[in-house]
């Protein structure tokens, strides 16, 4: 397999230390024990990769990028900054849209998942990017909803190039957060989600999204009144846009 790091990163925080493994249980679990701000943990294969809501993340060797970055001292707003960073980092390779709250899609199929976790003063963002998968590389239950850069564009970029760009854009976003630009980042993320006017179903109620609140949750107009959906809660998207959005 090609080396994932062939040249040094020109970053300020992300990549202060880089740990590369052939196989780990979870890059995020390793990152929590790294002990240094900006540590990047990358693995060719995860045996217990995880996504939101306790879902397993399919992460076979040689096909994608499975990595986590640890930050000490807190990084408020990382949930908003990370998907923007990945979108921007992948732009030279693949045009993506952001699905609330932090999935990245190509033609409605998921290419990247992001999970931010916090424990005892450490914040870790775990990122999984499907790069070289073909449809048959996914488990049968994912083939209708998952994609890769190769599937979306017909090209398979060098994974090291993709990783370098994403870590660089993530570094830019983290530095912006630490410089006090968290609200600017949140507003950019909310605009990228493009959810106002979307029809959804939440806990048995149909409604329309009227806004994203300051914590990243959705404000819904339903027949039973206004409802709020917390960041990352489950809901069903009914259609792209309402007729009156």
Walkthrough of the structure:
This protein has helices at residues 27-32, 78-90, 149-153, 159-178, 182-193; strands at 17-24, 39-46, 64-72, 97-99, 103-106, 109-119, 122-130, 199-202, 205-212, 218-222, 225-229, 236-239. The protein is built from five helices and twelve strands. It has 245 residues and is α+β, with helices and mostly antiparallel strands. Helix 2 runs antiparallel to helix 4 (159-178). The strands form two sheets. A seven-stranded mixed sheet has the order 1-2-3-7-6-5-4. The chain has a five-stranded antiparallel sheet with strand order 11-10-9-8-12, with no helix packed on it.
Key phrases:
5 helices, 245 residues, globular, SH3 type barrels, 12 strands, 5-stranded antiparallel sheet, BirA Bifunctional Protein, domain 2, 7-stranded mixed sheet, 2 domains, 23% helix, disordered C terminus, alpha+beta
